[in-house]
Amino acid sequence: MAPGRAVENRVTGMADTETDAGQLAPAALVGEIERTRTELAHTIDEIADRVSPGNVARRASARARERLSQVDPLIGGAVALAAVSVTCYFLWTKLRK
After folding, report:
1. Whole-angstrom Cα distance, residue 25 to residue 32?
2. d(Cα 9, Cα 49) in Å, to the nearest integer?
3. Distance, CA of 55 to CA of 42 (rounded, Å)
4. d(CA 84, CA 92)
5. Could you tell me if 91 and 84 are in contact, meaning their C-beta atoms sit under 8 angstroms apart?
6. Residue 41, class by beta-carbon neighbours within 10 Å (0-12 exposed, 13-18 middle, 19+ buried)?
7. What is the CA angle 24-27-31, rounded to 5?
8. If we measure between CA atoms, which residue out of 95, 55, 72 comes closest to residue 87?
């Protein structure tokens, strides 16, 4: 199957708008429209929640905390010691001048 055709079939299935409105009773049609409207509103709310700057920052912060918690304490201590050592060296050279 060609790659373009697979995408076309998937999109067509998702965007299937062909309904036989002539066979649906008006009440059923109104109910279908209301269900679709409710699903659409729910989808829009989910998208808005995903792209909210506060939520994006909160998720990034949670991922960073999770990664930091997985670092071996010995390695973390060595990195902190190296950072302090480099800072002290730069301060010492600055004060020596």
Report:
1. 11
2. 29
3. 17
4. 12
5. no
6. exposed
7. 95
8. 95
Q: What are the structure tokens assigned to 63, written together?
A: 């991922």
Decide: 17 and 9 in contact? Cβ < 8 Å: no
Tokens of 38: 């409710």
**Between the CA atoms of 23, 28, 30 and 34, what dihedral angle is there, to the nearest 10 degrees?**
-130
Residue labelled with tokens 């050279």? 93
Model confidence pLDDT, tens digit, residues 34-93: 999 999 999 999 999 999 999 999 999 999 889 878 878 788 888 899 999 999 999 999
Rg, the chain, Cα only:
29
Is there a contact between 49 and 55 (Cβ–Cβ < 8 Å)?
yes
| Of 42, 44, 20, the residue nearest 32 (C-alpha) | 20
In sequence order, what are the residues at sequence separation of 6 or more whose Cβ sits closer than 8 angstroms to the Cβ of residue 50?
A: 56
The CA-atom distances, in angstroms, between 87 and each of 43, 74, 83, 96 are 50, 20, 6, 14
